[in-house]
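Suppose a colleague, Dr. K., hands you the sequence of a protein chain of 222 amino acids and asks what its three-dimensional shape might be. Before reaching for any lab equipment, you can write down a predicted structure in token form. Begin with the sequence itself:
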Amino acid sequence: MVEWITSYGLTDFRTAEAWMEARVADIAAGTASECVWLVEHPPLYTAGTSARADDLIAPDRFPVFETKRGGQYTYHGPGQRVAYTLLDVGRRGRDVRCFVRQLEDWVIAALDQFNVRGEIRPGRVGVWVQRPEKPPQADGSVAEDKIAAIGIRLRKWISFHGISINVEPDLEHFSGIVPCGINDHGVTSLVDLGLPVTMDDVDLALKATFDGAFSVAPAPCD
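The predicted structure, expressed as tokens, is then:
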């Protein structure tokens, strides 16, 4: 069984990392169950293992934390639901690419609960939504904004870190970085899309769609 934990208020990032490290060790040892931990953080930037120094535009604006998750720079802050996924990928097929696809599918399914069509794009990490009301891209394609980020780490086939969905964060805070190294697309949130969605609503959607996105023996991913 997967345990669901919700922390209210703002959780210190290093405290969260330490908690995940301990829980991962317990899951690997068989003394704790898998879990999904739902948190919000104070405003901060994190640097993944592929972060480029030039993508940190405002290094003095918020605290910056180096972390060993995959990916580049990302922002966390109030109004953003962070779901840390501490799951046994070893017994879920030992396919990291498939596991990341499951995380993407989970986010897309949760967004669909609000009639928001989330999509993935080759070469662009995260989940995106089309913005036809905005000016088109330089190549004439429909403008797209990022609504969710994904970044994980594995230890002994146990995953940690996870996903973040923009519910109602201050989108201007993203301007201090190049989010995930992508500077030719914007960032959005559910409330920015005109939806009066609360954090509790998103939590219910994540819980309702989790089992459909994850299974012990997933189909092979292309």
